[in-house]
Amino acid sequence: MRYPIVQTGMGWVAGPRLVAATANAGGLGILASATMSLDELSSAIAEVRARTTEPFGVNLRTDVADVTDRIALMIETGVRVASFAQAPNPTLVMRCKEAGLFVMPTVGARRHAEKVAEWGVDAVIAQGSEGGGHTGTVPTSLLLPQVVDAVADRVLVIGAGGFFSGRGLVAALAYGASGIAMGTRFLLSAESRVPDAVKETYLETPVTGTVVTTKVDGAPQRLVRTEFVDRLDAQSWPRALPRALRSAHEFRRDTGTSLVALLREGRAMKKGGGLTWSQVVMAANAPIMTKAALVGGRPEVGVLPTGQVVGLIEGLPSVQDIIDDVMSEASHVLERWA
Questions:
Q1: Are residues 18 and 166 in the same domain?
Q2: Are the C-beta atoms of 216 and 285 separated by less than 8 Å?
Q3: Structural domain total, the chain
Q4: Rounded distance between C-alpha atoms, residue 218 and residue 283, angstroms
């Protein structure tokens, strides 16, 4: 990598074109595999390879039944980085490390960073509550220095949640991080596969126009606030159950997952994440409702995951321009300090 910038593995967004563009621009592109079947992941990796010779990564879920097959595919195809949306277990970390992969999970608490550092990961993405994921309620300005103090002597620390500019990169470096990871900034790029009309909805969202809800998949998730999200947030669990069951069926069909494998994944999620069975059933909602908006272009029946930084982003530049602008602004900030 030429620059300390990571493009996160956003489901339905981080496809081959975006990942390759990030790699070619000097950052680290992460391919989102959670919404792909194993065969689709193989094809996506091949497409990235056709577009760039630079290193890139694949984002993995630890609770999918074929996670070891996906890691084997990465090893066979020479993918360099294994990024995990949830904390991997020690066995998965060892398998990746033995194969020479660079292991980089996302964490939302100091104790989680300390735990995975003990297992031998190479880096952690410390994501604050400003981000769009499920990593907790601590803001980046407090989480990042905590994680740096705890594990920076053993692993690289990447800051995430609220970053979109060169000033943010310098701030992360001042906290002791080695770089930044950005999701929403890359979602709103020319190479993002999100439909242009949906991108315009994001661009019209103010910094106060997002909401954190548990009604999508049972875990806190930040979304653009829409009428559909407001109705969803007001639903009781019994009323949400039919939608969740339909989503589970559609997710199984889209990813080629067997019913047995889906149940196995559910048990793994319940055991590993401390979820209730109602939360497990709801978990299929997130990819399907996100797909409706980000792929189908229908935010009136789907959800728009986002970081709070969406309210500060203007325009849809190319990935090359995004990274060039971040590095140029960071250099100017450092020059003024000097």
A1: yes
A2: yes
A3: 2
A4: 7
Q: What is the Cα gyration radius of the chain?
A: 19
271 lies in some domain: yes
Domain holding 278, by residue range, is 206-305
Of the candidates 195, 178, 194, which has an alpha carbon nearest to the alpha carbon of residue 186?
A: 194
Together in a domain, 143 and 125: yes
**% of the chain at pLDDT higher than 90:** 72
Q: Could you read off the pLDDT of 243-289 as tens digits, one per residue?
A: 555 655 555 555 555 545 545 554 554 455 555 545 555 556 677 78
- CATH, residue 23: 3.20.20.70
Enter the tokens of residue 94.
Answer: 């060892």
Is the overall model pTM greater than 0.85, yes or no?
yes
Q: Is residue 175 one of the residues assigned to a domain?
A: yes
Whose CA is closest to 110, among 142, 65, 156, 134?
A: 142
Sign (positive or negative) of CA dihedral 107, 173, 15, 103: negative
Q: What is the rounded end-to-end Cα distance, in angstroms, of the chain?
A: 25
β-pairing verdict for 179-182 and 57-60? unpaired
If asked whether residues 19 and 140 sit together in one domain, one would say: yes
166 shares its domain with 22: yes
For 194-214, give the DSSP string.
S-HHHHHHHHT--TT-EEEES
Residues 146 and 41 in one domain: yes
Residues forming a β-bridge with 82: 58, 103
Picking from 332, 337, 5, the residue whose alpha carbon sits closest to that of residue 172 is 5
DSSP at 144: H
Considering the domain boundaries, does residue 201 fall inside one?
no
State mean pLDDT over 182-188: 98
101 and 244 inside one domain: no
Query: How far does CA 185 lie from the centroid of its chain?
Result: 12
Closest CA to 315 of 189, 170, 139: 189
Examine the domain organization and report whether 156 and 256 are in the same domain: no
Q: What number of CA atoms fall less than 13 Å from residue 163's CA on the CB side?
A: 35
Neighbours of 77 (CB within 10 A): 14
Domain annotation covers residue 248 = yes
Q: Centre a 10 Å sphere on the Cβ of residue 286 and count the other Cβ atoms it contains.
A: 22
